[in-house]
Specification:
Structural class of chain A: alpha/beta
Shape of chain A: elongated
Number of domains of chain B: 3
Structural class of chain B: alpha/beta
Strand order of the largest sheet of chain A: 3-2-1-4-5-6-9-10
Number of helices of chain A: 21
CATH class of the largest domain in chain B: Mainly Alpha
Largest sheet of chain B: 8 strands, mixed
Shape of chain B: globular
Largest sheet of chain A: 8 strands, mixed
Strand content of chain B: 5-15%
Distance between the termini of chain B: 49 Å
Number of strands of chain A: 10
Oligomer: heterodimer
Number of strands of chain B: 17
Radius of gyration of chain A: 28 Å
C-alpha cells in the first residue's frame, strides 16, 4: 500500500486497520442486478476499496432506471444495464478493477457451474424468488457469503445468507482487561515477589501503577488466607480496605494510583475465563477436522485452542496490552514490558502450533503469515463463529420469532408474500392493473399461503398489503441508498472478518424510521 | 424522463412539490455528496450548494462525486458539475464560499424551502441553525462518526433547535501541563501545534490556534505557553533565519534545563532529559526512509529521535520558504481545517485562498507537528506517536466511511419528503447505532423534542445573566469570550440604553475594546442589548458583579428566560451545579459514586409510566430539585446513602407530574395504590410495601421496614416483616405515623392523579 492509497483510505483505516483494508483489497465482489439498490451497495464497496467487482445483469436500461439509478448516464436507453453501470462505477476508484456480464445469472450458472467460486462476496439486489432460491442454494453449498437487499417502496429488507462465518477481530467495547491476576505468569510472579510496597516512601509509592498495587496486596492476602483469594462480599470489602489502608501513607488523603487500585480491586478475584463465544469456536467440528482445504481461520483457532489447553493451563493467549494507569513512567513501562514479552512468547508458541498443523496437512509454513497469528492472539477473546440459516430453512425457526416492535416485523411476511405473488403471477403486486388495488385480494391469499407455509398464526392488517400494492415494487432512491448502505456495511464486516455482522436479517421501515434486526 | 416509481409511491401532489421546491445544501462532504445524489434521483430540481472546502485525497473513500484529478478543486463546483453531468435537467449551483459570509443573509435563506446541513464543524452548524430560525425554514441536520450517525429536523417553534441542548465543550488541558509538565502524548501535540502557530501562524488570531482542543486555554496563556521567549519567538526565529538546530537547541535543551531548575516541579515526577539535537544532526540527507516491515505504512511508523530531528529540519525549512513566499497580506499559515471544529473569522476570500494553499502544505505542517511533538515526548519520557496517531490526536482525522453516510443521507431525504408532504409530525430524530448496543435496532427513531424555553437561540426573547468582575472584564472579552465564544454570534452589536458599546463594523469611532466594562459605565444590574444583524438574532444580557473572579478569564453565564413562575436566581445554573458536583466528588470521594448513581437512577425513575414529551421540562425540573436535595443531604448533613435515597424518592413522590406517590396512575377500580421498596447494599436489609393506599410517601414506610429489619430479630427469634401489603401496610404506617397517612375518609381523596400539563 503506497502513500496515496493510505491517504485515500486513512479515515477508514482508523476503524478496521491496515489488515482490514488489505482483506478488502484481496476480495472479489459480484453484484447480481444493477438496479438502484444494487449499484448503491456496490458503490459503497468500491469506495471502501474492494479488489474487484463483477456486475451480472441481463436487462437493458429502461426509463425508470434514469429516475432512480444514479449510475446510468444520459442517452443509454436500451443499452446493457450491466455495461452502463459498470462504466460509471469503475470511475469511482481507480484502484478497483471491474467487469460486467450482460447475461442472466441462471444462464451463466448453467454453462459455468463454478462461476461463483472465485468470489468472496455476492450481493443480490431485488432478486426474484426463482433466482433467489437457485443462487442461494449454490452459494450456501460453497460457503460463499450472499447478502440480499430489497428496496420495496418505503420498506427495505437485508438478509445475510452465509453457512458459516468466522470473526477474528470482534472489536468488542469494554472488554475486561487481561491482567491474569488469578494466575500470574512466571515473570510477573517474580516481579510480585520482589515488590515490597511497605518499604517504599510516599514519593516512590506514588509512582506504582495500580495493577502492581493490587497484585502486591493480593500476595499479602493469599499469604494470610492460605492461598484463597477474596470470595465473599465481606472478604472482598476487607481486601479493598487493605488497599485503602496501604494508601493512607500519604498524609493528605489517597493518591490517584491507590484510588485506581481501590476501584479496580475486582481484578484481584476475577478469574480469567474463556468467553462462551470462544468456547463455541473451540467446540466447532471444523476445529477438529483440519484438512488442506480448511479455512485459515480454523488452523489459527485450533492452534489457539491447543495452546490454551496444552500449554497455558486453560487460558487464552495474553493480549499484551495494559490500559493507561497513573504511575511513574519507569514502573509502568516495566510492567507493560512484562506483559508484552509474555504475549510475544505466547504468540510464538501459537505460531509453532500453527506451523505444525499446516505441516501435518501438507501445507507450507508460510501459508499463514505471522501477522495473522499475532492478530488472532491479541483478539482471541473476541473470536466468534456464526452458523447461518439457508433460505430454504427460514420456515423451520419461525416459532422463535419475538421481534419488537412487532409492526416492523410484519413487513417481513408481507415482502415474502410479494415475492410469492411475483413468482406465481409474473408481475409484482400493484402493477398488474391500472388501479394498484386490483391485486389486493390475490396478494392477501398469497400472504395467507406464506403464513400457512411458515406455520405462523400472525395477524397482519390489510393496511400493510394496501401499502405494498401502492409501492408497486418501486425503488425509492433514498430508501434503496439507506438499505444498501447497511448491506454494504455488513459486506465489509464479512469481508474483513472484523466486527460481528448482522445475524441475520433486518427490516428497514423508513416511514417510522426504524431498522430492526432479527434471526430467521 | 419518467420517475414513475417515485410518482406512484410519493403521490402526484408530493411529486410536484418535490420537483418545484428549492433546496439549500450546506456542505459537500461525505453526507453532502450522498444527499445531493439522493436529491437528484428523487426528483428534486432546484439545488443550491455551498461549501468552502477543496477536494482532498482522503475524501475519496466516501465522497464519490469527486475523482483523483479533481483534488485541489472546489468541492462545491466539482460536485455541481458531476451532478449536472449525471442529470442535465437539474438546476444546481455550486458556490465555493463560507456559508457564514455576509452575502448569505436571511433574505438569501428565505428563497429556499428546505435546508440540509451536511457540515463538519460546530460554528457553521450554529450559524445555519440561527439563519434557519430567522428565516423560519425547516432544517435537516445530520452528522456521522465512524459507524454512528444521527439526523434530526429543526423547525422554529415546533422542535428543539440545534442550540437547545448544550454541546460538549472540547477537552481542555491545564496550561501548566502543556507548558511544563506534559505526561501524555496529547500534551505534546497541543504544545507542538501551538509552537507551529507561534512560528508561522498569527499568534493573536484565534483562527490560528482555535482548531479544536483548547483554543481559549491557549489564547489566555499564549505568551508563555511554548517557551519563555514571550511573543518574540517568531522574531527570534526570523533573526536566525529559522535555523532548525538553534531552534531545537532552545526548545529541547535550554528550555528543558530551565524547567529542570525549578526543582519543586520534579519532586514527585520524573524529570525530563534535555535532548542534544546537535548530536543527532545528519551529515547526509536521507532521500526517503526505507520501510523494512511491509506491514508498516509510512504514516504508521514511529520516528526515532534522529528521524524526528531530520523531519523537523526539513519541514521547518520548507515551511519557512512557503511563509516567506506569501504576500504581505498573508503573513500566516493556517491549520488544515479538514473536519475539525474550526472557528475561522477571517474574511472568506482570504480564507479560500489560504485554504487551497493549506491542502498543499498540510503534509508539511503535520510533519513539523509530529517531529516537534515527538522530540518533546522523548525529552519527557513520554511514548512517541506516529504521524497517523498524531493526526488523530490533533483532531484532524475522525473516522468516516461511505456506508454510514449513505444510510444517514437516505434518511435525511426521506425526512425532507415528510416535510414537503405536510406530515411534519412524521419527522423525527433518528440515531444510527450499532445493533448490539440498542437491542437489535440499527436505526432508532426518537420523537422530536419541543423547543427549550431557555435556549439562547430560539426562545421568544432570549435573556441571560452574566456574572463577571466588572473592573477586570473588558469589552473585547465580552465580544470574544461571551458573545462569540459562548453565544455563537458572528458580528455582534452591543447597546446599553442608547449608547453603543460594541459595533460589528471594524473601525467605529469612540469604541475602545480594551476598556473594562466598569470604565464604559456598565454597573451591576445594567441591561445590555446584544444583536447580530447577520443572524437576525437578539439577546438581552443582565450584568451582575462577581468579584470572586480574579481576572478577565472568569465569567459565568446563566439562562434567564425560563418557565415563568420559577424564581431562577436562586437556582444555580447547570454549570454551577456541575461544578458543585465536581467539588463534592473531590471532597467526598467515597460518596461520589452514590451521587453519580443518583443522577442516573433518577432518570430511570422519571422514565417510568407515561411521559408526555411536552412535559419534559417539568420532568427535568423535578429531577434537578430531587438531585439537589440529595446532594444537600450528603453535603450538609452527611446523611447515610439509604436515607438520601429515601428523601430523594419522597421528593419525587410529592410531585404530581410523576407516576409515583401523588400523581400516581389510577388502578382499574379508580383508586391509587402505591408500591415502594428499598434495599441497602451494605447490610442487605430490605423493606417493601405493595398496593398501599392512602399514604403520601410509601417509600417512607418501606424505609422504616428496612430499618426495623436492620435492628435484627424480634422477640422469640421472629423475623420482622419485610413486605407489607394493602391495608396491613396502611395500618402499619398509621400506627407509626409514617409517610403522612390519612384517615379512612381521606383515603383516596387527595391522592388523585395529577393533571398532565400540556
Amino acid at each position: 500500500m503506497d502513500g496515496l492509497t493510505e491517504k485515500r483510505y486513512e479515515r477508514q483505516i482508523q476503524l478496521w486497520g491496515v489488515q482490514g483494508q488489505t482483506s478488502l483489497r484481496n476480495s472479489k465482489v459480484c453484484l447480481i442486478n444493477a438496479d438502484a439498490t444494487g449499484t448503491e451497495a456496490l458503490k459503497n464497496l468500491i469506495l471502501a476499496g474492494v479488489g474487484s467487482f463483477t456486475i451480472v445483469d441481463d436487462t437493458t436500461v429502461k426509463e425508470v432506471d434514469y429516475g432512480n439509478n444514479f449510475f446510468i448516464a444520459e442517452g443509454k436507453l436500451d443499452h446493457s444495464r450491466a455495461e452502463c453501470t459498470y462504466e460509471l462505477l469503475q470511475e469511482l476508484n481507480p484502484e478497483v478493477t471491474g467487469n460486467f456480464i450482460s447475461e442472466g445469472v441462471l444462464t451463466i450458472l448453467k454453462t459455468e457451474p463454478t462461476f461463483f467460486d472465485k468470489f468472496s462476496l455476492v450481493i443480490g439486489a431485488n432478486l426474484t424468488e426463482r433466482i433467489l432460491q437457485y443462487v442461494g442454494r449454490d452459494l450456501w453449498d460453497k460457503n460463499i457469503p450472499l447478502i440480499l437487499v430489497f428496496a420495496y417502496g418505503m420498506i427495505a429488507y437485508v438478509r445475510i445468507v452465509h453457512a458459516l462465518h468466522t470473526v477474528v477481530q470482534g472489536h468488542v467495547d469494554n472488554l475486561p482487561h487481561d491482567f491474569q491476576c488469578d494466575a500470574p505468569f512466571p515473570a510477573l510472579k517474580k516481579l510480585i515477589t520482589t515488590t515490597d510496597l511497605d518499604s517504599l516512601d510516599s514519593t516512590q509509592l506514588r509512582d506504582v501503577p495500580y495493577l502492581l498495587i493490587i497484585l502486591f496486596y493480593l500476595k499479602k492476602w493469599l499469604e494470610l488466607h492460605s492461598g484463597r483469594p477474596p470470595e465473599t462480599r465481606i472478604e472482598k470489602d476487607e481486601f479493598k480496605k487493605l488497599i485503602q489502608e496501604g494508601g493512607k501513607k500519604f498524609s493528605e488523603g489517597n493518591e490517584v494510583n491507590f484510588e485506581e487500585a481501590f476501584s479496580f480491586a475486582f481484578y484481584a478475584w476475577r478469574r480469567s475465563e474463556i468467553p462462551s463465544n470462544v468456547l463455541e469456536v473451540f467446540r466447532h467440528p471444523c476445529c477438529d477436522s483440519l484438512t488442506k482445504k480448511s479455512d485459515t481461520f480454523w488452523f489459527l483457532a485450533r492452534a489457539v485452542r491447543d495452546f490454551t489447553f496444552y500449554d497455558n493451563n486453560g487460558r487464552l493467549p495474553l493480549r499484551g496490552v495494559l490500559p493507561d494507569m497513573t504511575a511513574g513512567t519507569a514502573n509502568y513501562s516495566q510492567l507493560l514490558l512484562l506483559y508484552q514479552q509474555e504475549a510475544v512468547k505466547h504468540a510464538s508458541m501459537v505460531s509453532a502450533r500453527v506451523h505444525n498443523l499446516l505441516l501435518r496437512c501438507g501445507l507450507p509454513e508460510d501459508y499463514i503469515d505471522d501477522e495473522e497469528i499475532k492478530t488472532i492472539c491479541e483478539n482471541s477473546a473476541t473470536l466468534k463463529c456464526f452458523e447461518g440459516t439457508s433460505l430454504q430453512h427460514e420456515e423451520a425457526r419461525l416459532d422463535d420469532f419475538n421481534v419488537q416492535p412487532a409492526e416492523v416485523f410484519s413487513w417481513y411476511f408481507c415482502l415474502k408474500a410479494a415475492r410469492f405473488f411475483q413468482r406465481r403471477y409474473g408481475h409484482s403486486p400493484g402493477t398488474g392493473t391500472s388501479n394498484y388495488l386490483g391485486d389486493l385480494l390475490t396478494l392477501k391469499s398469497c400472504l395467507a399461503e406464506v403464513l400457512n407455509e411458515m406455520k405462523s398464526n400472525r395477524k397482519i392488517e390489510d393496511e400493510y398489503l394496501i401499502e405494498l400494492c401502492r409501492f408497486g415494487a418501486s425503488e425509492i432512491h433514498s430508501v434503496a441508498a439507506c438499505a444498501s448502505g447497511i448491506a454494504a456495511q455488513e459486506g465489509i464486516k464479512v469481508l474483513t472478518r472484523q466486527f460481528y455482522p448482522l445475524n441475520n436479517a433486518l427490516i428497514v421501515d423508513t416511514v417510522t424510521g426504524q431498522a430492526v434486526s432479527f434471526r430467521v | 424522463m419518467v420517475e414513475r416509481a417515485a410518482q406512484q409511491v410519493l403521490g402526484l401532489t408530493l411529486y410536484e412539490k418535490v420537483s418545484t421546491c428549492k433546496v439549500l445544501v450546506v456542505g459537500a462532504g461525505g453526507i453532502g455528496c450522498e444527499i445531493l445524489k439522493n436529491l437528484s434521483t428523487t426528483g428534486f430540481r432546484n439545488i443550491f450548494l455551498v461549501d468552502l472546502d477543496t477536494v482532498d485525497v482522503s475524501n475519496l473513500n466516501r465522497q464519490f462525486l469527486y475523482q483523483l484529478h479533481q483534488v485541489g478543486k472546489s468541492k462545491a463546483e466539482a460536485a455541481a458539475d458531476t451532478i449536472r453531468s449525471f442529470n442535465p435537467n437539474i438546476q444546481i449551483t455550486g458556490s465555493h464560499a463560507d456559508i457564514r459570509s455576509f452575502e448569505y443573509n436571511v433574505e438569501f435563506f428565505e428563497k429556499f424551502d428546505i435546508v440540509f446541513n451536511a457540515l463538519d464543524n460546530l460554528s457553521a452548524r450554529i450559524h445555519v441553525n440561527r439563519m434557519c430560525l430567522a428565516a423560519n425554514l425547516p432544517l435537516i441536520e445530520s452528522g456521522t462518526t465512524g459507524y454512528l450517525g444521527q439526523t434530526t429536523v429543526i423547525k422554529r417553534g415546533l422542535t428543539e433547535c440545534f442550540e437547545c441542548t448544550p454541546k460538549p465543550v472540547p477537552k481542555r488541558f491545564p496550561v501548566c501541563t502543556i507548558r511544563s509538565t506534559p505526561s501524555l502524548p496529547i500534551h505534546c501535540v497541543v504544545w507542538a501545534r501551538h509552537l507551529f502557530s507561534q512560528l508561522f501562524g498569527h499568534a493573536d488570531d484565534e483562527s490560528a490556534v482555535s482548531l479544536s482542543v483548547n483554543a481559549q486555554e491557549l489564547r489566555s496563556a499564549e505568551h508563555d505557553l511554548v517557551t519563555d521567549l514571550p511573543k518574540s519567538l517568531r522574531k527570534w526565529a526570523v533573526s536566525l533565519n529559522f535555523d532548525p538546530y538553534k531552534i531545537m537547541h532552545k526548545l529541547f535543551s535550554e528550555d528543558i534545563h530551565t524547567l529542570l531548575s525549578m526543582d519543586t516541579l520534579w519532586r514527585n515526577r520524573n524529570p525530563p532529559q534535555p535532548l542534544n539535537c546537535y548530536a543527532h544532526a545528519k551529515t547526509e540527507k536521507v532521500q526517503s526512509p526505507v520501510y523494512e516491515n511491509p506491514h508498516c505504512l509510512p504514516d504508521q511508523s514511529v520516528w526515532s529521535v534522529d528521524e524526528c530531528v531530520d523531519h523537523f529540519c526539513r519541514s521547518i525549512k520548507e515551511l519557512r520558504d512557503r511563509w516567506e513566499g506569501l504576500t504581505n497580506d498573508l503573513t500566516e499559515l493556517l491549520w488544515d481545517k479538514d473536519d475539525s471544529s474550526s472557528n475561522i473569522n477571517s474574511s472568506s476570500l482570504l480564507h479560500v485562498q489560504l485554504h487551497c494553499l493549506i491542502n498543499y502544505i498540510n503534509l508539511l505542517v503535520m510533519q513539523f507537528v509530529t517531529a516537534a511533538a515527538n522530540l518533546r515526548a522523548y525529552a519527557f519520557g513520554i511514548p512517541a506517536s506516529n504521524l497517523f496517531e498524531i493526526k488523530a490526536l490533533a483532531g484532524s482525522i475522525i473516522p468516516a466511511i461511505a456506508t454510514t453516510n449513505a444510510i444517514i443521507a437516505g434518511i435525511c431525504v426521506i425526512e425532507a419528503l415528510h416535510i414537503l408532504s405536510g406530515d411534519f409530525d412524521k419527522c423525527q430524530t433518528t440515531f444510527l447505532k450499532t445493533e448490539k448496543n440498542s437491542r437489535n435496532r440499527l436505526l432508532v427513531p426518537e420523537k422530536l423534542v419541543p423547543p427549550n424555553p431557555k435556549c439562547y437561540a430560539c426562545a421568544e426573547q432570549p435573556e441571560a445573566k452574566l456574572f463577571v468582575n466588572l473592573s477586570k472584564f473588558t469589552l473585547e472579552d465580552l465580544r470574544s469570550k461571551i458573545l462569540i465564544g459562548s453565544l455563537g454570534m458572528l458580528a455582534p452589536d452591543v447597546c446599553m440604553g442608547p449608547k453603543l458599546l460594541l459595533s460589528s463594523e471594524e473601525e467605529h469611532a469612540g469604541i475602545n475594546k480594551a476598556k473594562t466594562l466598569k470604565e464604559v459605565g456598565v454597573r451591576p444590574g445594567s441591561l445590555l442589548e446584544v444583536e447580530d444583524f447577520l443572524q437576525d438574532h437578539k439577546i438581552r444580557l443582565f450584568v451582575a458583579e462577581k468579584d470572586t473572579f480574579q481576572d478577565q478569564d472568569g465569567f459565568e453565564l446563566e439562562s434567564r428566560s425560563i418557565d415563568s413562575e420559577e424564581n431562577t436566581s436562586k437556582r444555580p445554573s447547570s454549570e454551577v451545579l456541575k461544578r458543585d458536583l465536581e467539588e463534592i466528588e473531590e471532597n467526598l470521594f467515597s460518596k461520589s459514586s452514590a451521587l453519580i448513581y443518583l443522577s442516573i437512577y433518577l432518570k430511570k425513575f422519571i422514565g417510568a409510566g407515561f411521559c408526555h414529551p411536552s412535559n419534559e421540562y417539568l420532568y427535568r425540573k423535578c429531577c434537578k430539585s430531587a438531585c439537589l436535595l440529595g446532594w444537600r443531604l450528603i453535603l450538609d448533613k452527611n446523611a447515610q446513602s439509604s436515607e438520601v435515597v429515601k428523601e430523594v424518592i419522597a421528593c419525587l413522590e410529592d410531585t404530581k407530574y410523576l407516576n409515583a406517590g401523588t400523581g400516581s396512575n389510577l388502578n382499574m377500580s379508580g383508586h391509587v395504590e402505591c408500591d415502594a421498596s428499598i434495599m441497602e447494599g451494605k447490610s442487605g436489609a430490605f423493606g417493601a410495601v405493595g398496593c398501599l393506599p392512602g399514604v403520601k410517601n410509601p417509600i417512607c414506610v418501606a424505609y422504616d421496614l428496612m430499618l426495623e429489619e436492620r435492628k435484627g430479630l424480634l422477640n422469640f427469634g421472629l423475623i420482622p416483616p419485610m413486605l407489607l401489603c394493602g391495608r396491613a401496610a396502611w395500618m402499619y404506617a398509621r400506627d407509626r405515623g409514617l409517610g403522612e397517612p390519612c384517615n379512612e375518609e381521606e383515603l383516596g381523596e387527595y391522592l388523585v392523579t395529577g393533571p398532565f400539563a400540556v
